[in-house]
Design goal:
The complex is a heterodimer.
Chain A: E1 8-12, E2 14-15, E3 18-19, H1 21-37, E4 41-47, H2 52-60, E5 65-70, H3 79-93, E6 97-101, H4 106-117, E7 121-125, E8 127-130, E9 137-143, E10 148-153, E11 160-164, E12 181-185, E13 197-203, E14 217-220, H5 230-239, E15 243-246, H6 248-252, H7 276-288
Parallel strand pairs in A: 1-4, 1-6, 4-5, 5-12, 6-11, 7-11, 14-15
Antiparallel strand pairs in A: 2-3, 8-9, 9-10
Helix pairs in contact in A: 3-4, 5-7
Chain B: E1 2-8, E2 10-12, E3 33-35, H1 39-53, E4 55-62, H2 68-77, E5 81-85, H3 95-109, E6 114-118, H4 129-137, E7 141-152, E8 157-164, E9 167-174, E10 177-181, H5 193-201, E11 206-207, E12 227-232, H6 251-264
Parallel strand pairs in B: 1-4, 1-6, 4-5, 5-11, 6-10, 7-10
Antiparallel strand pairs in B: 2-3, 7-8, 8-9
Classes of the chains: A alpha/beta, B alpha/beta.
Chain lengths: 289, 268
């Protein structure tokens, strides 16, 4: 079966005409797999209003070909429509491997498509390798609360599909000399599913959203003792250009939002951690003046 | 009256999971089975909708017969009835084969308005089965739902808030549809005494692969596109520094240590 399927695809993501950084990170993963199996690396963008110049950056970062399906009807992420479009591309081009970001949209689109294509999907892979004997994709992921690492493959179904967490890979440096084409594909109107409509989108305050895009996270848990003390963490995070994270326990207590939850539940550290913060903040203030 | 179906999973309590360092597998002895903690939020959502609009809430699970316990817990919280899919043929199912069986059972129930699932199960941690079921049944899907804004039982529409990394979307959907919900949606209620009494006596039908006329080649390990090749214990990657304060007088030294760390990382 696998001889009829070839090439490695990555699913690029964009918002407001700008590609998200995870699109380039996926290309770094995809590049090593494509090189290992002697296949092409193709980046697929489904969306709207992304310029050719912006798409060209996908080639600079490792893609050999960009397949772009853009239309106003694809501006909003409606999974039914995106799933129809991706299925249609898969049937036409028959990729061997599809990698997507483990973002909320990626984690919605990929299982939808995998079910309909009747193929395997492995979520949140931390390592991807090509099995040199069989050519199968070896997908390693944590499971059971991070207590084990399982290596999984899809031996008899194609394409082989996997998601990868944002910021788990470094993008390759941009190289403007790389050769590659951007192929625009028209949206077939019959692929648009109008049952679900996006009525509104509200951006979330920057200091809470996208913890994974931040280099510094100041995180607190039960040791903070009460919701009020989280203000100290916000103060410290601001001074360090970071964002505030919280343990599951703190989120369950309503001290922080679910979007701020970090990490897998690990050891319990009980203590009055917040006591150190006022002095730390005062000392940082002193240094500044 | 609305008809709501809530597929749930019985999972090992992973907070206290111990791994066998020799084999790299989970020590199952003494591990308590619980309702997947994230499914409590979909159960709660169904019960809130039941209070508001009137609904019949059916919980559904697939697993060994002892997973009836999970269904009974959901019933003791206020769900109306439960159904278990149990058959040796289901053993070894991955997310595809699980969703195939669950979606076939949901189709078998006939008309319904909503399918509600948790974000993911705490053991497998994939978050795939909810979207898989929606795809299998061609149900409109909203994932990471943090709020139900409006529901119109006559007009058969629902509007929900969906979390994404950059913010919140408001989606309008027709019924029937499938929502996967996140923790922010509610706080799960506790079982009631009355509920517990009902759960004790309520009969839980067992559905087998044969009764659902499932295709044998789509079941269990045989029907699963994925295979686990190997497992191992992860290396501990957290090598963070812990600064301990035992008494008030330690605070100064702790602050010194933190400042030194921030300097070393060039954060200040």
């Amino acid at each position: 079966m696998s001889e009829r399927y070839s090439n490695v695809w990555t699913i690029a993501e964009a918002r407001d005409g700008k590609l998200k950084s995870v699109s380039y990170e996926l290309l770094a993963r995809g590049r090593s797999l494509a090189d290992a199996s002697g296949e092409k690396l193709v980046s697929v963008l489904i969306g709207a209003n992304v310029s050719d110049a912006e798409l060209r950056t996908l080639i600079d970062h490792g893609a050999d070909l960009v397949l772009s399906v853009q239309d106003d009807a694809l501006d909003a992420f409606i999974v039914e429509t995106y799933s129809n479009v991706l299925m249609d591309l898969v049937r036409q081009f028959r990729p061997n491997i599809i990698l997507a970001a483990a973002t909320n949209n990626g984690r919605t689109l990929m299982p939808h498509v995998a079910m309909r294509l009747h193929t395997g999907l492995t979520a949140d892979c931390t390592d991807l390798q090509v099995d040199m004997n069989t050519g199968d994709l070896l997908q390693t992921r944590p499971a059971i609360g991070g207590n084990i690492l399982a290596t999984i493959k899809t031996p008899n179904h194609r394409p082989q599909m996997a998601t990868v967490r944002p910021r788990s890979t470094q993008a390759l440096p941009a190289d403007a000399r790389r050769a590659g084409d951007v192929q625009q594909i028209n949206l077939k109107p019959e692929l648009v599913d109008k049952r679900v409509r996006l009525l509104a989108f509200e951006a979330e305050a920057a200091d809470e959203s996208n913890l994974q895009d931040s280099d510094v996270i100041v995180s607190g848990g039960r040791g903070m003792k009460k919701a009020d003390n989280f203000r100290l963490l916000h103060d410290l995070a601001k001074r360090l250009n970071g964002k505030v994270g919280a343990s599951r326990d703190a989120v369950d207590r309503g001290w922080a939002k679910y979007s701020q939850q970090v990490g897998l539940s690990g050891k319990t550290v009980v203590g009055d951690a917040f006591q150190v913060l006022p002095e730390l903040i005062a000392r940082l203030e002193e240094r500044k003046s | 009256m609305l008809k709501i179906i809530v597929p749930i999973k019985q999972v090992p309590e992973t907070g206290n999971v111990r791994m066998d360092p020799e084999t790299g597998t989970m020590v199952r002895e003494g591990v308590v089975s619980i309702v997947n903690p994230l499914d409590l939020y979909s159960i709660e959502t169904a019960l809130m909708l039941k209070e508001q609009f009137g609904a019949h809430v059916t919980v559904l699970t697939m697993g060994p017969l002892n997973a009836v316990k999970a269904l009974k817990e959901a019933i003791s919280m206020g769900c109306d009835d439960g159904v278990i899919l149990s058959d040796r043929a289901f053993a070894g199912s991955d997310t595809w084969a699980t969703a195939y069986a669950l979606s076939s059972a949901i189709r078998h129930f006939g008309d319904f308005d909503l399918v509600l699932t948790g974000e993911r199960a705490t053991d497998g941690d994939t978050g795939q089965v909810g979207p898989n079921i929606a795809a299998a049944l061609d149900l409109p899907l909203a994932t990471y739902v943090r709020k139900v804004n409006t529901l119109d039982p006559e007009g058969k529409t629902i509007t929900v808030e969906r979390s994404v990394e950059e913010g919140v979307e408001t989606l309008q959907m027709p019924l029937p549809c499938l929502l996967t919900v996140v923790k922010e949606i509610s706080y799960p209620r506790l079982p009631t005494l009355r509920g517990k009494k009902r759960a004790k006596t309520v009969e839980i039908p067992v559905l087998t692969a044969g009764e659902l006329e499932l295709k044998p080649e789509f079941l269990g390990l045989k029907g699963s596109p994925t295979r686990v090749v190997s497992t191992k214990s992860p290396k501990v990657t957290r090598n963070g520094r812990i600064v301990t304060i035992k008494e008030d007088k330690d605070v100064g030294a702790a602050v010194d240590a933190l400042i030194a760390l921030l300097e070393e990382r060039q954060l200040i």
